[in-house]
Amino acid sequence: MFDDPAGDFMFQFGPIFIGIIFVIIISVIIIGIVSSLSQWNKNNNSPKLSVKAKVVTKRTSIRGGGETSAHNDYYVTFQVESGDRMELEVKGNEFGMLVEGDTGELSFQGTRYLGFSRDVQAEIH
Fold it and tell me: Does this entry carry the keyword Transmembrane (predicted)?
């Protein structure tokens, strides 16, 4: 019979390589789940705050597409009275209602956006 050392190596290394890749993928998934649960718990234990803020900028992030359906994430950056800025993820309907330059009362809990009440100013005719 023909003895091929390279073939023996592939039959020995192949299952080990596939096992390592499997462990890496499962580890990344578990780390993502733990990170998400940790942030969710941190937000739940944070106080609900309402502060004066200004809408500084807005952006979207698109995930997926191609072979899968695309998903949009919407983010708004607010600047509070102290000058600090925070970017919060908002729902699409909220994103459309906010305009850069708007001022008002921002409500949030940790990194969770709760709402924005725009200051109503008298219109000058």
Answer: yes
The alpha carbon torsion through 107, 75, 88, 95 (nearest 10 deg) reads: 10
Within 8 A by CB and 6+ apart from 60, the residues are: 72, 73, 74, 75, 95
The class (CATH top level) of 47-118 is: mainly beta
Give me the residue spans of the domains in the chain: 1-45, 47-118
Eight-state DSSP code of residue 68: S
> For residue 56, which phi and psi values (nearest 5 degrees)?
-95, -50
Q: pLDDT tens-digit profile of 31-48?
A: 999 999 999 999 999 999
**pTM here?**
0.72
